[in-house]
Amino acid sequence: MLDSAPSDETLLEINNIEVIYNHVILVLKGVSLKVPKGGIIALLGGNGAGKTTTLKAVSNLLKSERGEVTKGSIMYRGEGIQDMVPSDLVKMGVIQVMEGRHCFEHLTVEENLLTGAYTRGSGKGDIEADLDLVYSYFPRLKDRRRSQAGYTSGGEQQMCAIGRALMSRPETILLDEPSMGLAPQLVEEIFNIVKSLNENEGATFLLAEQNTNVALRFANYGYILENGRVVMDGPARDLRENPDVKEFYLGMSEEGRKSFRDVRSYRRRKRWLS
């Protein structure tokens, strides 16, 4: 997969943020990152590293979980967005696709998609045109458009969740664990659609993903989180060739493929956190 070049313009900038839950639990510790216009930026790390918390800090969904940004700043197009309500962020062009393929199970696939246009106030013709665009990227959804979303497959529900986000005409999509629970073939299909949306529609992506191998094949740039800190970042092609990333996230080393259980994590942390 070739790395396409995003714009020099920075859309989203996170500056040294700290996130605390329940007033006592420190989850993010000085996280900083930039998302350029037209980029696909991967936020990588294991379960509990702080990836989802970072996305929710941007989309202002922390308060529902008794979390808050206590230090640092989050800027979108140079404007502070920490005090915005999520619906205003959607109108601004920033939308999050939640982990776990959240759909309205009792609604049909098409009804789910139409809810994504709720904040726009567009005419019927514009909405129908956008619906056709979504179906062009997800033909399987067109086939299942009259089916209740709760009775579709996991892959179809993930497509529905992304398609619903597209209906809001976003500039930037925060995509949380798109590969979770999906077969490898479906994961490849989802990421190819993300790449197509990026190249053809100009959509910018910040995606949180545990599947480092596939994420680094499709992303332009990556940040690796460990215990709420960014421990490494760089162009995706450089991270793919980095010995530590190969050993600890891709399961490869100079001696060949390794199991995570065969590797002592303190060696990694000593190098990265020293």
Structure description:
- The chain is α/β, with parallel strands linked by helices.
- The longest helix has 18 residues, at 184-201.
- The protein is built from eleven helices and twelve strands.
- The two termini are 33 Å apart.
The total number of structural domains is 2
Strand order of the largest sheet: 6-7-8-3-9-10
Give me the secondary-structure category.
alpha/beta
Mean pLDDT: 88
Number of distinct helices: 11
Gap between N and C termini, in Å?
33 Å
- The number of distinct β-strands equals 12
Rg: 19 Å
Stretches where pLDDT is under 50 for at least 5 consecutive residues are 257-264
- Helical amount: 25-40%
- Write the CATH fold name of the largest domain: Rossmann fold
List keywords for this structure.
Rossmann fold; alpha/beta; four-stranded antiparallel β-sheet; 274 residues; 2 domains; 27% strand; globular; six-stranded mixed β-sheet; single chain
Helices and strands, with pairings:
Elements: E1 10-21, E2 25-36, E3 40-44, H1 51-59, E4 67-76, E5 79-80, H2 86-92, E6 94-97, H3 109-115, H4 124-137, H5 139-143, H6 154-166, E7 172-176, H7 184-201, E8 204-209, H8 212-218, E9 221-226, E10 229-235, H9 236-241, H10 243-248, E11 252-253, E12 256-257, H11 265-273
Parallel strand pairs: 3-8, 3-9, 6-7, 7-8
Antiparallel strand pairs: 1-2, 1-4, 4-5, 9-10, 11-12
Helix pairs in contact: 3-6
